[in-house]
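Q: Could you fold this chain for me?
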Amino acid sequence: MKKKIAILAVVVAWLCGTTVRGAAPASPKASASIRSRRRRIVVKRRYRPIRRPVRYWSPWHVSSLGDPTAFDDPAGEVLAIRQAAVAALGKWNGAMVVVDPDTGRILTMVNQKLALGSGFLPCSTFKPVVALAALKRGIITPQTRIWVGPRWSVSLTYALAHSINEYFFKVGEMVGFPTLARYAHEFGLGEKAGWNIPGESPGVFPSEPPADGVGNLAYIGEGMQVTMLQMAAVVSAIANGGTLYYLQYPRTPDQVRDFVPRVRRRLTNIIPYLPAVRAGMAGAVLDGTARLAYDRADPILGKTGTCSEDGARLGWFDSYRADRPRYVVITLLRGGQPMYGPHAAQIAGRLYRDLRQINLPETETTRAESAPARR
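A: Sure. Below is the predicted structure, expressed as structure tokens.
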């Protein structure tokens, strides 16, 4: 036992830089090495860094996650289409509306509270309407190139596909507020898009241009509030060749059986200019801002939109399937950093891939196409 105590005393003395009675004194060089080692030990123990969690400031105050089906009543919807839309949207805080562009029937509406209850900034999804107004007034042609930088000019197709804000800011200034407002109202913006749909908001279209100028209205929709149903009606008119339908939401078996399309107006004045806008929307999916929705086997046309409002980031994707059966799909995401237009396009792309295997029941399709449209 005494031997163990003696050994322990020698070790402690060596660490502390002292000597033990009866032991040979350390050399000056060894003593300096011992003192240096002791200082390193003390410093390491005394100044060990404490890791704390890093908190990043975020301007977004709305969660990106949620249950989009929490308050829905799916009565009257096409169940297979609804299931595909719910699966595509997942747990993201958003909504999806699927419409038949040839009849105006709403086939499904996931997150009815968000889709019906209020309007939102359209972001860049207002740009196709701006393009049609400029084309109709002869201010631009599909080949017109506008300078958007010191050494960079783009055409309408490229500007729509890549959502070039500078292009539409300048076009909006050239078109002017009165003309832009007239074409917006022709598409039904600022009015209810549905036929007797409870809880639908009419949105807002400003009575005068924004303080920052009509260019801001043209490229981001400043001062506007649009609903998903309004954008579904606009895209349906682009898809079907200029017919603006009242959107209808049949909720009972009798309403589904007796469904008849209702035409709101026919936009014959824009028909010659629809191909130019469609080319830009096709380019967005092919290699532009909506390329995450691209599928070689399924031609899709669409327009993305990204902006922020009321502490939330908005991600839009307004789109339609070109092949029959045709569908218009409006996707809106609301929340934080992940909610932006390309993400909405990715979600819609998943839905379109599932919709390949889904068709409207034959009896409903036949009845809708054969029935006379009401005005």
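A (continued): The CA atoms of residues 212 and 222 lie 9 Å apart.
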